[in-house]
Specification:
This protein is of the alpha/beta class. Helix content is about 40%, strand content about 15%. Helix 2 packs parallel to helix 3 and helix 3 packs across helix 4. The longest helix is centred in the C-terminal third of the chain and has 17 residues.
């Protein structure tokens, strides 16, 4: 008798379709995530920007409102991860506010420690629960020494997979020796 593990398809919502967001969407689609890529700049989520077979599986959303688009994409929250990789503080705040209200399994936000702390402190001042804010991975991604947008996307997706699978995000070298 054999068993097959059946689980829901993982969902990733990406707020921001710049270099990192687009790279993250492509990589996540390639490894089997259902991806929703959101940006308030329609030219960044134009279908002609995503033409390969895996890329055509990416849902592209040109948002009039970051908050509404994120709430719609996350839905009820369980089984959903969100990576916030927008171009500025204001967009980060809008996206993070909506994400925290929707309560996804994973929330990550790109930026320097200084930039992410500014956003988190502002939301704390607005009354968001400290425990809720502590769940936010900021800066997002595992520390792999990433430099290029593709490497940053890999670091972010690695952290999302580690969270989903219960991984520790450490080196595999110990595993290889056993």
């Amino acid at each position: 008798m054999s068993f097959e593990r059946i689980e829901a398809e993982p969902n990733l919502v990406i707020a921001g379709a710049g270099h990192v967001g687009a790279s993250l969407a492509r990589l996540a689609a390639l490894v089997g995530y259902r991806v929703t890529l959101i940006d308030d700049r329609a030219e960044f989520v134009a279908p002609q920007m995503f033409q390969s077979a895996p890329e055509k599986q990416i849902s592209l959303v040109a948002a009039q409102s970051w908050a509404a688009a994120i709430r719609d994409a996350i839905g009820k929250g369980p089984g959903v991860s969100i990576a916030i990789v927008t171009r500025g503080h204001k967009q980060d705040e809008d996206c993070l506010r909506a994400a925290l209200e929707a309560n996804p399994d994973y929330v990550g936000m790109i930026g320097s420690k200084r930039r992410t702390n500014i956003v988190l402190d502002k939301l704390r001042e607005e009354g968001f629960d400290g425990a809720q804010l502590e769940r936010v991975r900021a800066p997002v991604g595992l520390d792999i020494g990433a430099v290029s947008p593709e490497e940053v996307a890999l670091a972010i997706l690695a952290e999302i997979v580690a969270e989903r699978r219960g991984g520790k995000g450490g080196s595999l070298s110990a595993w290889r020796r056993t």
